[in-house]
């Protein structure tokens, strides 16, 4: 695999996007060029999310939380209503058992992005607070790199799944015209949000490091 080959494969993906032909895009995403395109999309997408969150505090405070709450309420409503309909009226919507798992998927990854704001994911605050200041900052940078790498991998692999689903016209079971990729696309979007939170946290950590403020603090579950 040479650099020229990698760039050519990446360009073939970019060239296929305007056609919006899911089969063509799915085929090009199977090449190694998808990793280069995915890296750029993850970093630029995450940077855009971080900028939007900085410019619009209401969006930063409520977007992921709203997605979580509404997804949870929809899951509860579908299951609750359909249980009553099944045991009382002996009828049930055929999609009532297939839609909730997708809603749970949306809720879970939106919640992952939201909790990254509060650094609730294995922050090791007590251990890191005993380190020298430079080591503390190095650990925080390492956290950001790990989250961005994790997001990059998931954005690439899940986008392949999305376009493969679209190319094969996979329909949500129990429905006639609801495509699975409409729901699956929430996964790469969620991980771009996670990348944005990682960049946002890194910017905060850098400012604190330069200003001499405390770098490590105990995480707060659902801090606001």
TrEMBL record:
Sequence intervals crossing the membrane: 33-55, 67-87, 99-116, 137-159, 179-199
Organism listed in the record: Martelella lutilitoris
PANTHER family: 2,3-DIKETO-L-GULONATE TRAP TRANSPORTER SMALL PERMEASE PROTEIN YIAM (PTHR35011)
Record keyword Ribonucleoprotein present: no
Gene Ontology cellular component list: plasma membrane
Higher taxonomy: Bacteria, Pseudomonadati, Pseudomonadota, Alphaproteobacteria, Hyphomicrobiales
Similarity comment: family membership: Belongs to the TRAP transporter small permease family.
InterPro entries xref list: DctQ, TRAP_DctQ
Limits of the Tripartite ATP-independent periplasmic transporters DctQ component domain: 75-204
Protein's cellular compartments: Cell inner membrane
Biological process, per Gene Ontology: C4-dicarboxylate transport
Record Pfam families: DctQ
Molecular function terms from GO: transmembrane transporter activity
Domain of life: Bacteria
Name of the protein this chain belongs to: TRAP transporter small permease protein
UniProt topology in membrane: Multi-pass membrane protein
Keywords for this protein: Cell inner membrane, Cell membrane, Membrane, Transmembrane, Transmembrane helix, Transport
Summary of subunit composition and partner proteins: The complex comprises the extracytoplasmic solute receptor protein and the two transmembrane proteins.
């Amino acid at each position: 695999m040479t650099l020229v080959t990698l760039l050519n494969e990446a360009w073939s993906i970019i060239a296929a996007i305007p056609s919006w032909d899911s089969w063509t895009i799915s085929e090009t995403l199977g090449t190694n060029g998808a990793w280069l395109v995915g890296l750029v999309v993850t970093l630029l997408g995450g940077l855009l999310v971080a900028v939007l969150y900085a410019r619009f505090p209401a969006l930063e405070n409520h977007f992921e939380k709203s997605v979580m709450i509404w997804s949870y309420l929809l899951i509860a409503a579908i299951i609750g209503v359909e249980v009553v309909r099944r045991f009382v009226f002996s009828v049930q919507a055929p999609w009532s058992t297939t839609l909730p798992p997708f809603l749970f998927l949306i809720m879970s990854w939106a919640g992952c992005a939201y909790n990254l704001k509060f650094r609730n994911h294995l922050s090791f605050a007590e251990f890191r607070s005993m380190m020298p200041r430079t080591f503390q900052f190095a650990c925080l940078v390492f956290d950001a790199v790990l989250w961005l790498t994790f997001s990059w991998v998931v954005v690439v692999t899940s986008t392949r799944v999305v376009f493969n689903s679209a190319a094969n016209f996979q329909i949500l079971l129990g429905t006639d015209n609801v495509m699975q990729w409409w729901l699956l696309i929430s996964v790469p979007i969620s991980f771009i949000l996670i990348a944005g939170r990682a960049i946002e946290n890194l910017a905060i950590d850098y400012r604190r490091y330069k200003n001499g403020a405390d770098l490590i603090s105990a995480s707060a579950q659902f801090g606001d």
